[in-house]
Write a structure and sequence with these properties.
This protein is an alpha+beta fold. It has a single domain, classed as 2-Layer Sandwich (Nucleotidyltransferase, domain 5). Helices cover 37% and strands 19% of the residues. Strands 3-5-4 form a three-stranded mixed β-sheet. The protein has a two-stranded antiparallel ribbon with strand order 1-2. A two-stranded antiparallel ribbon has the order 6-7. The N and C termini lie far apart (56 Å). Pfam families: GDA1_CD39 (PF01150). This is Apyrase. It comes from Aegilops tauschii subsp. strangulata.
């Protein structure tokens, strides 16, 4: 089967070729590539590691009430399993897996028509993005595939809504555990 190079992913200082067959991609092959890129099996010199041998902060009660923001919200909305107009949505990592399996079966033209909210330049990556998100949550951070979590696009602050992003989430976690 001939593969068509669609582009590159850059992660952790490494460049990975992103390719797919014209007829679609293999969920399991994409997942294996993401596991490799995340270095999930890297040696861990700490008590608990997430990926790449990096300490995961110890987990604990904070991991039971997860808030996930930014690109996770955007891809979930584009994949159609949350309402893009909602401020928050409840999902499970398995929702990303199911969406990835659907997206990976599609060729680029079918993906374009199935995901009209995705910018044309990003359509070839919808499969890989969803696989990456699922794998990062489950293999990278050790979140149970059935654990409910909250996707957040914007959070209320004073009399406005502020774009939710990981630095804000990290600050909230630090402030709430004090």
């Amino acid at each position: 089967m001939a593969f068509m190079i669609l582009g590159q992913y850059k992660y952790g200082g490494n460049t990975f070729e992103a390719s797919a067959a014209p007829s679609g991609s293999s969920f399991s092959e994409c997942r294996a590539d993401v596991v490799k890129a995340l270095k999930v099996d890297e040696a861990c010199t700490h008590m608990k590691c997430s990926f790449g041998g990096i300490w995961n902060g110890g987990g604990g009660a904070g991991q039971k009430n997860l808030f996930v923001a930014s690109f996770f919200f955007d891809r979930a909305a584009e994949a159609g399993f949350i309402n893009s107009n909602a401020a928050v949505a409840k999902v499970k990592p398995s929702d990303f897996e199911e969406a990835a399996k659907r997206a990976c079966k599609l060729n680029v033209n079918d993906a374009q028509s199935s995901y009209p909210g995705v910018q044309k330049d990003n359509v070839p990556y919808i499969c890989m993005d969803l696989v990456y998100q699922y794998t990062l949550l489950v293999d990278g951070f050790g979140v149970d595939p059935q654990q409910e979590m909250t996707l957040v696009k914007k959070v209320p602050y004073s009399d406005a809504f502020v774009e939710a992003a990981w630095p804000l989430g990290s600050a909230i976690e630090v402030a709430s555990s004090s």
